[in-house]
Design goal:
Length: about 160
């Protein structure tokens, strides 16, 4: 597996994987994948990653990206993490490879805190983030509705050990 920068050329595969995550009902409050331009505008240019197979022409196995948590300058070093793995590639270390590379990219860019909002039912994602050094900060009860049902999220964060010390 290789970790590469995510580009517009990857968007069809990235969008497909995003839609697979949306379909689970446990990955995001989002109910539709946006167009490339909207996705591109809402994510940081740092830490856009895809995992692909070792052979040329392999489809994207998963992707990761960062979203700013606020436009206020005091939060310039804080970003929200997204990690999505194709249904056929889950349980094969793709998420771990992406999240490890994403943390390194974030620190190289000077980010000091990464956070993740995860549905409590998404135990594989919770475990993945905890293994990458994220800690549970709290549970946000009935924080939003998904398809007419109130949902909780767990808030996890990872403080850099090299940035902001």
């Amino acid at each position: 597996m290789q970790i590469l920068p995510l580009t517009a050329a990857h968007w069809p595969d990235v969008r497909r994987i995003y839609l697979e995550g949306i379909a689970t009902g446990h990955a995001t409050f989002t109910t539709e994948a946006p167009a490339w331009d909207a996705w591109d505008a809402s994510h940081l240019s740092t830490g856009r990653l895809v995992a692909v197979g070792d052979d040329d022409g392999q489809p994207v196995l998963g992707w990761a990206a960062l979203t700013p948590v606020s436009g206020r300058c005091v939060y310039a070093g804080v970003a929200e993490v997204s990690v999505y793995v194709a249904a056929a590639a889950r349980g094969q270390g793709v998420g771990q490879a992406l999240l490890t590379a994403l943390v390194a990219a974030a620190e190289a860019a000077g980010l000091w805190t990464l956070q993740a909002g995860i549905f409590p039912e998404n135990l594989p994602s919770v475990r993945l983030h905890e293994a990458a050094g994220f800690r549970l900060v709290g549970r946000r009860e009935r924080i939003g509705q998904l398809r007419g049902h109130w949902r909780d999220t767990l808030l996890l964060e990872r403080r850099s050990t090299v940035v902001g010390q």
